[in-house]
Amino acid sequence: MRIIYIFTISFIIPACLCVLAEKRKSYQ
The pTM is what? Predict the structure, then answer.
């Protein structure tokens, strides 16, 4: 169960960073 939790976090965090990067590009 712990492995699934770590795998989910390691997948969501980079995805959120990508979304934030895209939003910054759209602002500029």
Answer: 0.54
